[in-house]
Specification:
This protein has two helices and two strands; from the N terminus they run αββα. It has 85 residues and is of the alpha+beta class. It has a single domain, classed as Histidine kinase-like ATPase, C-terminal domain (Heat Shock Protein 90).
Length: 85
């Protein structure tokens, strides 16, 4: 297992490899992706094979029926508008 994999979703983490010098970046991209996915109740993961590349995947939960009903009730309460001014 690559020693970098457990850390790639941490803020400002950059892998220690030869291409690090030529490829720019701050090490925030995957941390931001992880935050967005987790804030929606999902999960993100990576499968990596040295010399072949990496595949990043994520899964998000479907909106529950209860959540949909609550949104409809709120909309009806507001006269069909998403917000009332």
């Amino acid at each position: 297992m690559n020693k970098d994999l457990p850390h790639i979703f941490e803020k400002f983490y950059r892998a220690d490899n030869a291409s690090r010098e030529t490829i720019g970046g701050t090490g925030l991209g995957l941390a931001i992706a992880n935050y967005i996915v987790q804030s929606h109740g999902g999960e993100i993961w990576v499968k990596s094979e040295l010399g072949k590349g990496s595949t990043f995947s994520f899964a998000l939960p479907l909106e529950s029926t209860r959540s949909k009903r609550l949104k409809i009730k709120r909309r009806e309460k507001l006269g069909g508008q998403p917000w009332k001014l």
